[in-house]
Q: What sequence folds into this?
């Protein structure tokens, strides 16, 4: 049983790990959401973050506890889980390439966060609105299309997608099977459609492969069940992806 630790009530970076666990049908507990009398809840999560007895403490959430292992950072968690959940290729080249894709998704997520908090995370959005407008404009016009175009190129250059790109069915970032990178790209696009619906839809028209992969992942049986369950929290202005209409030019 995997123990996932992340702040309750929001998707955040923990959602990338949840999607992998859910898609694989892996048994896990979302510790901070669970009942404290059972030795879980916020107190259990804070133990790893604040207790001096933890020799290798995670810097922040999310982190995964598997037996004696405590693994922080979304990309590192997925690097660990990928082969155990069957969500990464068996070759070292495939594992490293999938990890690179995940790290690039992490870069994109960080830039999304900085569109609404460009000055400091400790400040409210309302205290940095002017800077946020400038940062969001650059993200929409320069960074968003660059990220999507790169993932489109990755899909086009995957030999296992040959003959499928036009139809848009059965596309994968690595090899011919679902990987955690596919799931994470789905989540990135979902978040972008929430935060920047107009800009994202415009750019997705130019990256049909990314758009098709997004649709296909949502239709994956276990993923679809999760997306329609109470376990999937909605996006909100407390998470990484936030909808401020004035930032979506």
A:
């Amino acid at each position: 049983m995997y123990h996932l630790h992340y702040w309750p009530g929001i998707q955040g970076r923990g959602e990338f790990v949840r999607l992998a666990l859910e898609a694989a049908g892996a048994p896990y507990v979302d510790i901070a959401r669970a009942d404290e009398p059972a030795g879980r809840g916020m107190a259990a999560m804070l133990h790893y973050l604040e207790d001096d007895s933890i020799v290798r403490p995670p810097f922040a959430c999310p982190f995964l506890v598997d037996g004696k292992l405590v693994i922080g950072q979304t990309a590192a968690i997925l690097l660990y889980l990928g082969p155990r959940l069957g969500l990464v290729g068996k070759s070292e080249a495939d594992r490293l390439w999938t990890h690179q894709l995940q790290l690039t998704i992490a870069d994109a997520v960080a830039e999304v966060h900085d569109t609404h908090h460009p000055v400091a995370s400790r400040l409210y959005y309302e205290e940095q609105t002017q800077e946020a407008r400038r940062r969001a404009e650059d993200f929409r016009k320069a960074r968003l299309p660059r990220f999507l175009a790169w993932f489109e190129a990755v899909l086009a250059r995957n030999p296992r997608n040959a003959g499928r790109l036009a139809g848009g069915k059965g596309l994968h970032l690595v090899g011919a099977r679902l990987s955690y990178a596919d799931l994470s790209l789905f989540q990135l696009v979902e978040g972008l459609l929430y935060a920047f619906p107009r800009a994202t839809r415009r750019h997705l028209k130019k990256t049909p492969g990314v758009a098709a992969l997004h649709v296909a992942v949502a239709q994956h049986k276990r993923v679809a069940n999760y997306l329609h369950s109470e376990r999937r929290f909605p996006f909100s202005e407390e998470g990484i992806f936030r909808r401020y209409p004035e930032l979506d030019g």
Q: What stands out?
A: The first strand starts at residue 2 and ends at 5. Strands lie at 2-5, 28-30, 63-66, 69-72. The chain has a mean pLDDT of 95. The CA atoms of residues 23 and 141 lie 33 Å apart.
